């Protein structure tokens, strides 16, 4: 018995009721739509975002290659401080691109190395310097975080739109109650003797 009472309380806007207003039915549809967008849309947005991120990371792993490079100058040991890059410093390097041309650029390498030391850098398909692609485990974690963020963003947007819709419906109800009270109120305004 208690379960059926609870169910009827939750679904009161859907039942036939002489006190139910058009705004109550509209609010029930708004609440249902918001929950559908949060559950179905949030799940779909999270899944699609996660899959897209996984594809981007897989493309990065397929395109980027480790390439040997040579330091062109000594790399000082970095100073430790609140804005330091750890034990790495910016250094000028030279490497050979896939088309055979020699290129130079700047990248972060471990501090304390001497000029002429060989280091490994990552390049993209054109031979330009790039960052190391994420490992499959790192990519899965990052894709999961991006998918979760997308699901939460869509859910937050749907919730905000739903709250705005319910606020607008509440304003309409209050205005209707005010109009009805101006009609009914004077009938109640009598003095008891």
Automatic annotation (TrEMBL):
InterPro entries: MT1774/Rv1733c-like. The keyword Transmembrane applies. The chain crosses the membrane at residues 25-48, 139-162. Keywords: Membrane, Transmembrane, Transmembrane helix. This is Uncharacterized protein. It comes from Streptomyces heilongjiangensis.
């Amino acid at each position: 018995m208690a379960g059926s009472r609870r169910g009827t309380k939750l679904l009161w806007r859907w039942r036939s009721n002489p006190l139910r207003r058009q705004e109550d039915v509209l609010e029930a549809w708004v609440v249902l739509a918001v929950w559908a967008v949060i559950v179905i849309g949030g799940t779909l947005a999270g899944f699609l975002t996660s899959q897209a991120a996984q594809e981007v990371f897989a493309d990065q792993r397929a395109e980027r290659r480790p390439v040997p490079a040579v330091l062109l100058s000594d790399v000082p040991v970095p100073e430790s401080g609140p804005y330091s890059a750890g034990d790495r410093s910016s250094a000028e390097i030279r490497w050979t691109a896939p088309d055979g041309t020699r290129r130079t650029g700047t990248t972060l390498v471990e501090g304390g190395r001497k000029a002429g030391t060989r280091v490994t850098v990552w390049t993209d398909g054109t031979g330009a310097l790039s960052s190391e692609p994420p490992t499959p485990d790192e990519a899965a974690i990052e894709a999961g975080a991006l998918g979760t963020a997308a699901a939460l963003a869509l859910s937050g947007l749907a919730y905000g739109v739903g709250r705005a819709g319910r606020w607008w419906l509440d304003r309409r109800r209050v205005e209707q109650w005010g109009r009805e009270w101006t009609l009914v109120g004077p009938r109640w305004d009598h003095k008891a003797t």
